[in-house]
Each structure stands twice: as structure tokens, then as C-alpha cells.
């Protein structure tokens, strides 16, 4: 199957592929109602549109929410085999995101969602896979309305064209669609297995981290992060759009969204020497513990493995190597992310350098620096092994999952890339 397009042609065996509007292939039913306040602990399964792009994958046999029998009577019904697709979101990527419902009992859905009930001409899972292609994305982008809130109505979704092989022979058409689904299912199953293993490794890592970083009274001396820090650094955001500060920049400039509990080897944005000379964005030496202090990212941490600059929402701690191992500090701060985040102030929950440097850290054998650093290094060695398996981009399971996802995307696009008549005419 190295030549995927050749395999697709063999699968079609000369069969015609016709692009048909979704409205001709399925019944579309627009939902209404269902605020989250209607949810109950148990009852009738309910699929809320917001959960489709935050919780569900492409398929589910159960729901995370329920409504009462009385509430369900007024809502649109989702039968096993139906698809629930989002009509509304704050971004174009999440509009038109589907979930195939394969549960045993009837479910319900509400507003900002449409139920797609496939006819005998299309498999639900085939359509769900097609929604991940660039063809579908381009179609929904043409139909999308709105700026801050983006909407693709059920009426417009019905206009989206889907490639149907051998449309005059439904039995053969479904067989071809089913084979494409079978191949793509195999890739998603492999990715799911790796993802489940990664989740298990993360649990194992958290268990060992909690064990290794839990101390009895008297075993440690409690200090503050400020006590074990030689120097702290912040940064600045050079004026956006000023080419003097960004054009052909070569200096790494870190933003808080890139601080994600891992080593930092590069940044998405580069700035110029002029930005360093004329703003507060100053160089930060490598191997600092960097803690985000702003809003949604507050409390997240990382370690810069390269010298870099940052925006003003990063607090960078250069750890005193004679008092603490910087990776020991990183593991401690990462473990206490929730505690740090809860210390945030104001409407945005922001932290500041004072709060961070006042945060306490246990130092084992503090009265014997050599023994203390040896114990910290021992703890770090164990935790780094689990950290590599769970968080590394170039090693371990995340890298394997990334490769599998790329492989799946390649096969999906090849198997579902059929020429359009208008393209051929052009």
C-alpha cells in the first residue's frame, strides 16, 4: 500500500465518483435548546455542541452529559448511526466538527448543532472522515458567516458536496466506502492505543513524582524559590508590526503559550538586535526555570535549553547551582502547577515575580550542600526518564503519536481525494 492513490484506483475498479450535495445523501435536522443548566447526573444521553470540539473524538458510544426525560421530550433525537455536527464556534476549525453516535440508546442534542441522518447512499463514518479533509474545510470556509462567532447553518451544510463512488450501485458504493473506513480505522486504532499508553505513562510519572517529592517533616529545609535563585529575568513585547523589531530577526523570543511543562529548544517568533537594544526584552541565559505569569497560562513552567528573550509575561529564574539543581526546581514547580495557578490575582488570575519567588520549595539535606545536590540529582534522573517518555517531542510516545497522526493524515487525504468535474474541465 505504498502507492495509496494506485490502491484507491484499484478499489474503485473503474467505478465513477460523483460529488453530491450532503442534502441529497442525508436528512439534516437542526437542533435547538439544551443549555448546560439542563444537565443532570443521569438520564437520557445528551450531546452538547461545545463538547464535540472539546471532548469527543470522531465517534462515541456514550455521552458525558444527560438530561431528564421531561427535558429530552423537547429536544431533537439522535439515533445510533446518526452524526451530530457543530454549526457554531469562535473559529472556522471547530465549525463543522462531527461526532458519530454509536451508542445503544437514543440520545438528544440541542442548539448550535445539526443531526445528520445518513441515507443508504453514504456511511456515517465515511462522511466523518471526509470532514477532516482539505476539500471539506474549503467548502465550509466558503459557507461560513460571521466574524467573532462563526456559523455554518444546516441549510448551508446541506450544500457541501461529498464524493460518492459508484452512486448508481448503492451496494457496491457502500462496500467501497466501507473499505476506505476500514483502512482509516486501523490507523486511528493504532494512534488510540499509543495515546492510551501515553496516558498510563503520565499517571505513572505523576505517581513517582509525588512519591519522590513528598517529604516528612525534618527531612528537608523549606526555602523559597527566591532563596535558590541567583537572578530573575522578565521581558517585553516589541511593538507589533514594526519591521525594525521583527523583520529578519534571529534572536529567539518566547511567548507564554510556548511554556508547556517541557524543555524549550526554539521559539516560534524571532526578534532583532534593535528590539533587544531598545526595549526591555533582554537575553535570558540557558537552563533557567521559566514560569508563565499571565491569565490562562499562569503557573505553567519550562526550561530554556537555549539563550533567548521573552515577553513580559514570563518570569525566568536562574537557579543557584550551589543550592539547587535547576531540573529539581522545574519538577517541583510543575508538580505544584495547580497551587501556583490558584495564587493568581485579579480578574485574569495573573501571577507576578514576587509571588513566584516567595513560593516554597523543599531542599533535602540543606545543611550538607554536596549531599543535597546528590539527592536532588538522583530524584531528577528518575523523573527525567518519565518526562522524556511522556513529554519529549523528539523521543518517546509523543513523537510516535505524531508520526502515526501524520501517516493517518496522508492515507486519509489520498484515499478521499477524488477529482471534481469542474477541476477536470479547468
3D architecture notes:
By secondary structure, the protein is an alpha+beta fold. The protein folds into 3 domains: 1-15 and 167-215 and 372-426; 17-165, Alpha-Beta Complex (Adenine-n6-DNA-methyltransferase TaqI, Chain A, domain 2), CATH 3.90.220.20; 226-358, Alpha-Beta Complex (Adenine-n6-DNA-methyltransferase TaqI, Chain A, domain 2), CATH 3.90.220. Helix content is 38%, strand content 21%. The chain has 16 helices and 23 strands. The chain has a 5-stranded mixed beta sheet with strand order 2-11-7-9-4. Strands 15-22-19-20-17 form a 5-stranded mixed beta sheet. It has a 4-stranded mixed beta sheet with strand order 5-3-10-6. Strand 19 (289-292) and strand 20 (301-304) form a beta hairpin. The radius of gyration is 27 Å and the shape is elongated. The relative contact order is 0.11.
Amino acid at each position: 500500500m505504498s502507492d495509496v492513490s494506485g490502491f484507491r484506483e484499484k478499489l474503485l475498479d473503474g467505478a465513477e465518483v460523483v460529488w453530491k450535495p450532503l442534502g441529497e445523501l442525508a436528512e439534516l435536522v437542526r437542533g435547538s435548546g439544551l443549555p448546560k443548566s439542563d444537565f443532570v447526573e443521569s438520564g437520557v444521553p445528551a450531546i452538547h455542541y461545545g463538547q464535540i470540539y472539546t471532548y469527543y473524538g470522531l465517534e462515541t458510544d456514550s455521552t458525558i452529559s444527560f438530561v431528564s426525560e421531561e427535558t429530552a421530550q423537547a429536544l431533537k433525537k439522535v439515533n445510533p448511526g446518526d452524526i451530530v455536527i457543530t454549526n457554531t464556534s469562535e473559529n472556522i476549525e471547530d465549525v463543522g466538527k462531527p461526532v458519530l453516535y454509536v451508542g445503544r440508546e437514543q440520545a438528544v442534542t440541542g442548539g448550535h448543532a445539526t443531526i445528520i441522518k445518513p441515507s443508504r447512499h453514504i456511511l456515517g463514518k465515511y462522511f466523518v472522515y471526509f470532514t477532516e479533509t482539505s476539500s471539506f474545510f474549503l467548502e465550509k470556509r466558503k459557507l461560513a458567516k460571521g466574524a467573532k462567532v462563526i456559523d455554518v447553518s444546516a441549510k448551508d451544510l446541506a450544500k457541501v458536496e461529498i464524493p460518492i463512488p459508484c452512486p448508481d450501485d448503492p451496494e457496491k458504493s457502500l462496500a467501497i466506502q466501507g473499505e476506505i473506513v476500514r483502512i482509516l480505522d486501523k490507523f486511528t486504532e493504532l494512534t488510540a492505543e499509543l495515546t492510551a499508553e501515553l496516558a498510563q505513562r503520565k499517571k505513572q510519572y505523576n505517581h513517582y513524582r509525588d512519591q519522590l517529592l513528598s517529604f516528612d517533616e525534618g527531612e528537608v529545609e523549606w526555602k523559597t524559590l527566591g532563596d535558590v535563585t541567583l537572578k530573575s529575568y522578565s521581558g517585553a513585547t516589541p511593538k507589533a508590526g514594526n519591521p525594525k523589531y521583527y523583520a529578519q530577526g534571529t534572536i529567539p523570543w518566547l511567548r507564554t503559550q510556548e511554556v508547556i511543562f517541557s524543555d524549550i529548544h526554539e521559539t516560534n517568533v524571532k526578534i532583532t538586535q534593535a528590539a533587544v537594544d531598545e526595549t526591555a526584552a533582554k537575553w535570558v541565559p540557558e537552563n533557567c526555570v521559566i514560569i508563565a505569569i499571565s491569565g490562562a497560562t499562569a503557573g505553567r513552567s519550562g526550561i530554556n535549553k537555549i539563550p533567548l528573550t521573552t515577553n513580559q509575561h514570563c518570569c525566568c529564574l536562574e537557579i543557584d547551582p550551589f543550592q539547587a539543581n535547576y531540573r529539581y526546581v522545574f519538577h517541583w514547580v510543575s508538580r505544584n502547577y495547580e497551587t501556583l495557578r490558584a495564587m493568581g490575582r485579579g480578574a485574569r488570575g495573573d501571577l507576578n515575580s514576587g509571588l513566584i519567588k516567595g513560593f516554597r520549595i523543599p531542599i533535602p539535606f540543606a545543611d550538607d550542600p554536596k549531599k543535597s545536590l546528590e539527592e536532588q540529582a538522583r530524584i531528577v534522573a528518575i523523573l527525567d526518564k518519565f518526562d522524556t517518555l511522556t513529554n519529549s517531542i523528539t523521543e518517546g510516545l509523543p513523537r510516535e503519536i505524531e508520526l502515526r497522526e501524520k501517516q493517518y493524515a496522508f492515507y486519509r487525504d489520498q484515499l478521499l481525494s477524488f477529482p471534481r468535474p469542474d477541476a477536470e474541465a479547468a
